[in-house]
């Protein structure tokens, strides 16, 4: 059987993942606003900010995290921000047509293989692409195990700088990988019965949406709504509760290219640790098996898996057999 073709692009930035708990968002607003509106970005830039009921989660380049930490340190706010000590590298992913023919989603194809190799990933879907973040010291291992499963085409591999001597790299012939084992205890999974809007906007339009974005991230009184702003490779994706967009003036609404259907979210019902692997796969696998398209959004403290509204009933039925599923009050 011919191997499925997978195309990966290694992005240049060294990334960090950080979190600000909800009660501290106000005092940390200044450096976050600078990152959102006053930082020049090019085609290689990578920035993600996601607000949930628990946190403001950030994915940003190493040099920009240092700016945020400098602000926190100089204003005696070091306890207000937490970050993962390792750098991450982003892989833009694309699965060939044979993968689609097999009913295998991009996220599930990656998550299954990397989970079996005990490699932790942080996953971000956008309006038009998927990005898999791997800890920098694990990138070479990740590429090697993916080559075992796929006909892998990699762009930008020369950007990878190994943290260990070349003589000590992973062997070319790794041990055959086992499928990730099912957990004996069912994880708790929340279902959010709230309509979410996915949209795309050009970088040139962000200034026109600045008041809207500030209101969404810093001044809304609701603690349960989800809002995410992702700017990667010159494209900006917005994901948010439909209620965020209700009062947007017509001329600003015209700046958004909106996905035709609404989305619903499932989220892990417990705080995650990055020492764990297989979280993404545990959700994507059952949904992929029933040919459900998913939009995946990792944050520092949890993961969200979104499905289009027309797939909700089937998704709930499927996930109930794998998780302890609860409705989340909004």
How would you describe this protein?
By secondary structure, the chain is of the alpha+beta class. The protein has a domain at 188-201 and 216-221 and 239-327: VC0802-like (2-Layer Sandwich). 26% of the residues lie in helices and 32% in strands. The chain contains ten helices and 17 strands. The strands form two sheets. Strands 2, 3, 4, 5, 10, 11, 12, 13, 14, 15, 16 and 17 form a twelve-stranded mixed beta sheet that branches. It has a five-stranded mixed beta sheet with strand order 7-8-6-1-9. Strand 3 (46-51) and strand 4 (55-61) form a beta hairpin. The longest helix is centred in the first third of the chain and has 13 residues, at 62-74. It starts with a strand and ends with a strand. 38% of the residues are buried. Residues 86-147, 260-320 form the CASTOR ACT domain. This is CASTOR ACT domain-containing protein. Residues 14-67 form the CASTOR1 N-terminal domain.
Series of secondary-structure elements, N-terminal to C-terminal: EEHEEHEEHHEEHEEHEEHHEEHEEHE
Q: In DSSP terms, counting alpha (H) and pi (I) runs of 4 or more, how many helices?
A: 10
Beta strands, count: 17
Q: What's the architecture of the domain at 188-201 and 216-221 and 239-327 in CATH terms?
A: 2-Layer Sandwich
Indicate the structural class.
alpha+beta
- What is the average of the pLDDT values? 86
Q: CATH topology of the domain at 188-201 and 216-221 and 239-327, anyone?
A: VC0802-like
* General form: globular
Largest pleated sheet: 12 strands, mixed
* Beta content: 25-35%
CATH class of the domain at 188-201 and 216-221 and 239-327: Alpha Beta
CATH superfamily of the domain at 188-201 and 216-221 and 239-327: VC0802-like
* Cα radius of gyration in angstroms: 19 Å
Query: Percent helix among the residues?
Result: 25-40%
Protein name: CASTOR ACT domain-containing protein
Domain CASTOR1 N-terminal: 14-67
Domain CASTOR ACT: 86-147, 260-320
InterPro entries: ACT-like_dom_sf (IPR045865), CASTOR1_N (IPR040778), CASTOR_ACT_dom (IPR027795), CASTOR_mTORC1 (IPR051719)
């Amino acid at each position: 059987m011919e191997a499925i073709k997978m195309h990966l692009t290694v992005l240049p930035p060294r990334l960090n993942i950080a979190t600000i708990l909800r009660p501290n968002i106000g005092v940390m607003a200044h450096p976050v606003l600078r990152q959102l509106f006053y930082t020049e970005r090019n085609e290689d830039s990578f920035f993600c900010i996601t607000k949930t009921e628990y946190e403001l989660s950030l994915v940003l380049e190493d040099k920009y995290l240092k700016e945020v930490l400098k602000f926190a340190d100089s204003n005696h706010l070091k306890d207000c921000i937490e970050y993962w000590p390792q750098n991450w590298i982003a892989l833009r992913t694309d699965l060939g047509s044979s993968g689609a023919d097999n009913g295998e989603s991009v996220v599930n194809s990656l998550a299954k293989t990397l989970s079996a190799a005990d490699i932790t990933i942080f996953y971000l879907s956008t309006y038009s692409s998927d990005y898999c973040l791997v800890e920098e010291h694990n990138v070479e291992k990740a590429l090697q195990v993916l080559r075992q499963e796929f006909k892998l085409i990699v762009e930008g591999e020369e950007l990878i700088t190994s943290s260990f001597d070349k003589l000590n790299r992973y062997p070319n012939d790794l041990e055959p990988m086992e499928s990730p084992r099912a957990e004996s205890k069912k994880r708790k999974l929340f279902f959010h019965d709230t309509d979410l809007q996915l949209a795309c906007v050009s970088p040139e339009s962000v200034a026109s949406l600045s008041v809207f974005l500030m209101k969404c991230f810093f001044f809304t009184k609701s603690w349960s709504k989800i809002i995410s702003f992702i700017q990667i490779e010159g494209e900006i994706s917005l994901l948010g509760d439909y209620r965020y967009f209700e009062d947007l003036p017509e001329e600003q609404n015209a700046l958004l290219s909106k996905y035709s259907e609404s989305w619903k979210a499932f989220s892990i019902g417990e705080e995650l640790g990055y020492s764990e692997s297989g979280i993404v796969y545990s959700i994507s696998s059952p949904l992929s098996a029933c040919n459900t398209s998913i939009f995946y959004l990792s944050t520092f403290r949890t993961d969200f898996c979104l499905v289009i509204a027309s797939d909700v009933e089937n998704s709930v039925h499927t996930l109930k057999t794998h998780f302890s599923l609860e409705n989340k009050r909004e």
